[in-house]
Every structure is written in C-alpha cells, then in structure tokens.
C-alpha cells in the first residue's frame, strides 16, 4: 500500500558516478510532462483504495544517487498544493505535480508505472535533460 508523505525539495549536486545512456533532446512542441495511461490508472486505483479524490503524485528532484541527481516520487494530498511553487499536470485522469525548480530538470519526461516481479513503482522515463544514469532507474546526471 502507498503512503502519503510530504515532499522534500533539495537541489544539490554531489560527486558523480555515471554510466552512459542514450537520450533525446526535448521537442519544444511536446508537453512539459506526460503521464502514461498505466500510471494514470494506478493513481486512480490508489485514490479509490484510500477513498480520496485529491490524490496526486509528486515528482521532485534531489541531489544524490549514483549519478548526481535522483527522482523522488511520492503520493500526496492534492488539497495542500502551493499555487506559486507547484505545476499540476493532468492526463488520462491522473494528476502529477512538480515543483517549478524540479520541472526544469524533468521537462519533456514521461511518468509511467512499472510492475516487475519484485517491485512496482512510479518512474520517470525518457528525460531529455539527462545524459547518463545508473541501473537503479532513479539516478541521473544533467546535460550541460
């Protein structure tokens, strides 16, 4: 079961250990953030289980991880969002919120939900601002 937690916002750049991955540039006509139908469905299912209509997925970026930055994805009550600091994206019935600082680092990315044998999680994929990442899937380094 998912738990609601307050988001932490911290953008620092620690030392880097990176591996190369292929990345494409952001198309200016593409949306700032996309939500897959699978991620939207999982958000709706989780909201129904928790009996709330205001559930959102917060995507934030913090300094850390193997490659310099890491994604932090947490479920929150959408009623407590900041109108000045947060940007809300709604697609396929799912709502994702990103603080303005983190948005600059994930602009052009897609939020998805991956289900594997040993874990299920919301993930950020296809980040055009990342030049490298690590096998964990949550850590990345920025394009200069």
Characterize the structure shown.
The chain is mainly beta. The protein has one domain: HesB-like domain (Hypothetical Protein Aq_1857, Chain: A). It has two helices and ten strands, in the order E-E-H-E-E-E-E-H-E-E-E-E. It has helices spanning 37-49, 100-106, and strands spanning 19-20, 33-35, 55-63, 69-77, 86-91, 94-99, 109-115, 120-125, 130-133, 139-142. The strands form two sheets. It has a seven-stranded mixed sheet with strand order 1-9-10-4-3-6-5. The protein has a three-stranded mixed sheet with strand order 2-7-8. A hairpin with a 5-residue loop joins strand 3 (55-63) and strand 4 (69-77). The chain is globular. It starts with 18 loop residues before the first strand and ends with a strand.
Total beta-strand segments: 10
Mean pLDDT: 80
The profile of the biggest β sheet is: 7 strands, mixed
The end-to-end span amounts to 38 Å
Low-confidence stretches: 1-26
How many separate domains make up the residues? 1
SSE ordering: EEHEEEEHEEEE
CATH superfamily: HesB-like domain
Q: How would you describe the oligomerization state of the chains in this entry?
A: single chain
Number of separate helices = 2
Task: Please name the CATH topology.
Answer: Hypothetical Protein Aq_1857, Chain: A
Shape: globular
Please bin the fraction of helical residues: 10-25%
Please report which band the strand proportion falls in: under 5%, 5-15%, 15-25%, 25-35%, 35-45% or over 45%.
Answer: 35-45%
Using the 3D structure, state the CATH architecture: Sandwich
């Amino acid at each position: 079961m998912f738990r609601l937690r307050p988001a932490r916002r911290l953008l620092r750049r620690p030392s880097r250990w990176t591996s190369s991955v292929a990345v494409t540039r952001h198309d200016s006509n593409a949306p700032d953030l996309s939500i897959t139908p699978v991620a939207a469905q999982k958000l709706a299912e989780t909201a129904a289980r928790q009996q709330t209509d205001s559930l959102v997925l917060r995507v934030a970026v913090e300094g850390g991880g193997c490659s310099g930055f890491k994604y932090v994805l947490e479920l929150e009550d959408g009623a407590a969002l900041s109108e000045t600091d947060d940007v809300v994206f709604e697609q396929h019935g799912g709502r994702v919120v990103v603080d303005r600082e983190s948005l600059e680092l994930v602009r052009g990315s897609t939020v998805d939900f991956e289900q594997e044998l040993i874990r299920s999680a919301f993930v950020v994929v296809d980040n055009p601002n990342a030049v490298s990442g690590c096998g964990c899937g949550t850590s990345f380094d920025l394009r200069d």
